[in-house]
Design brief:
The protein is an alpha/beta fold. It has 2 domains: 6-295, ANL, N-terminal domain (Rossmann fold), CATH 3.40.50; 398-495, 2-Layer Sandwich (GMP Synthetase, Chain A, domain 3), CATH 3.30.300.30. It has helices at 6-17, 32-48, 66-77, 90-100, 112-121, 178-192, 209-220, 233-243, 254-264, 281-290, 362-368, 409-416, 453-461, 488-495; strands spanning 21-25, 28-31, 56-60, 80-83, 104-107, 125-128, 158-163, 173-177, 199-202, 224-227, 247-250, 274-277, 294-301, 306-312, 328-332, 345-350, 357-358, 369-370, 373-382, 388-393, 422-432, 436-445, 472-475, 481-482, 485-486.
Length: 496
């Protein structure tokens, strides 16, 4: 018996809502029937190029309608999509391509040059993303939609590899299956009560799990996804007004910028019903006072296919929400024992949303999956009503989240230490009015060295993704030590 796959969502929507608009990008629209036939065309295109079950296909592009065509085609073939973060540096992208070894790389015009540079360092076939499109919908009649031609999927058939932040110097590829992504969508649908009337504005990058999760949830109920290539507050408000958008995804500073533009502009966003994101209590309260919509707060990872906790934020401001309906989690101490209510423990998760493991990292997977639980490396507390409060990361998985991105201090520290003028460094997260959390580098310079803060910031920006560069730099005489190692907590206390 064939298990339900993501491709079946495309078939179902074509069967029951074929003339309904599925996707919109600029002035272009695509019905569910047109989307399905485009998927069939793309699957044939890929198959002729040797893409088969288990093969990886990468995409380096801004948010585009073709993303959903490629995803559906790969789901039909049993192949695996690798969406690439276009903010990454050449070196980071080359590492990912070398790790997952995709059969081909699809790119848009904006990224064609860096794709060629990737190809020089790591041979891979490059294709224009526009080749995925049907030139004329009248050609669609020649494509067979026979279900028997679709590759048989089982619950753990991989569909997507999302590369997470570099924990130990290199990104890790989180492998998500068909059932992972379908379950994640169903949890959002059930929790929020989404329907075919909902319209999602895709302003979060589709290479991130939150953007992908919300888009697939709306697609699964037969709603509409409106696509913009990247966030722009004026465009967001204009499209929300004109297309009666009901759902936003928001990471700082998106909501702050939207509300500033909304206050000074002439927009009607009364259609908006939900905003899903990670903003703080003050911003959430201010937003809900001005707009008749509910802000939904969450905790989750790429490794959990989306949201572990997910609730209306106003029910317990400051929390990360309550447990989702399709996950189970607990808080464990260092010995693997469940902590008491109000105590801090590592968040451990199990259920159909938990990923299949990291690509090519068996040793890491053995440490991550223990006693049937995915050990997240995140710390939290639970109150008596089951609301989770995020308390940071375990020391070995220290994480900074500027604007919703994940940055591991160790990666930034490694780059800073490549500068000949720096003797020692500790990178920490600090409050930032724009991005919620900023990156600060506390550095000890070598004797006799004079270094401008701006110079060091640009040094880092030239070697890894620019969003990973420190916004703040402080030069100090020495860094506190504990057990012959830098005492990160003391650094936070002194300079955080």
């Amino acid at each position: 018996m064939r298990m339900h796959s993501l491709y079946d969502v495309y078939v179902r929507n074509d069967n029951v809502s074929k003339d309904t608009i599925a996707l919109m990008e600029g002035d272009e629209t695509c019905t569910f029937h047109e989307l399905h036939t485009s998927v069939l065309h793309a699957a044939e295109f890929l198959s002729k190029r040797g893409v088969a079950r288990g093969d990886r296909v990468a995409i380096l592009s801004m948010n585009r309608l073709e993303f959903f065509i490629l995803l559906g085609a790969l789901a039909r073939l049993g192949a695996i999509m690798v969406p690439l973060n276009w903010r990454l540096s050449l070196g980071e992208l080359v590492y990912i391509i070398g790790d997952c070894l995709p059969k081909c790389l699809f790119t848009d015009a904006k990224h064609s040059e860096i794709a060629k540079k990737i190809q020089q360092k790591c041979p891979v076939e490059i294709n224009d993303i526009n080749e995925l499109r049907l030139k004329e919908q009248t050609d669609a009649t020649r494509y067979s939609a026979s279900d028997s031609e679709a590759v048989l999927a089982v619950a753990d058939t991989p569909l997507c590899i999302i590369y997470t932040a570099a924990v130990e110097g290199h990104p890790r590829g989180a492998v998500l299956s068909h059932s992972n992504l379908i379950a994640a969508s169903l949890q959002v649908i059930t929790s929020m009560g989404l329907s075919a009337k909902d319209v999602n504005l895709n302003m979060l990058p589709l290479f991130h799990i939150t953007g992908l999760n919300l888009a697939l949830a709306v697609m699964q109920v037969g709603g509409r996804n409106v696509i913009i290539e990247k966030f722009d507050e004026q465009k967001v408000l204009e499209i929300t007004t004109s297309e009666k958008v009901t759902l936003w995804g928001s990471f700082p500073p998106i909501l702050t910028r939207c509300m500033a533009e909304f206050t000074g502009g002439n927009y009607d966003i009364s259609s908006l019903k939900y905003v899903v994101g990670l903003d703080g209590p003050e911003m959430i309260s201010s937003f809900e006072e001005k707009v008749d919509a509910k802000f939904w707060i969450l905790y989750g990872q790429s490794e959990t296919s989306g949201f572990v906790t997910f609730s209306e934020a106003s029910k317990k401001l400051g929390s990360a929400g309550q447990q989702g309906c399709l996950v189970t989690f607990c808080l464990l101490d260092e010995y693997g024992v469940t902590v008491k209510t109000g105590e801090t423990g590592e968040i451990a998760v199990r259920g159909p949303l938990v990923f299949q493991g990291y690509w090519n990292l068996e040793a890491v997977n053995e440490k991550t999956f223990r006693q049937g639980w995915h050990h997240t490396g995140d710390l939290g507390q639970l109150d008596t009503n089951g609301y989770l409060y995020f308390k940071g990361r375990k020391p070995e998985k220290e994480l900074i989240k500027p604007g919703g991105e994940n940055v591991y201090p160790a990666e930034v520290e490694t780059v800073i230490l490549e500068h000949k003028g720096v003797k020692a460094v500790c990178v920490i997260g600090v409050p930032d009015p724009k991005f919620g959390e900023g990156i600060k580098a506390v550095c000890v310079l070598n004797a006799g060295v004079e270094l401008e803060k701006k110079e060091l910031i640009e040094f880092v920006a030239g070697r890894i993704a620019r969003y990973k560069k420190p916004q703040y730099v402080e030069f100090v005489a020495s860094l506190p030590q504990q057990n012959e190692m830098i005492d990160r907590n003391k650094v936070k206390e002194l300079w955080g």
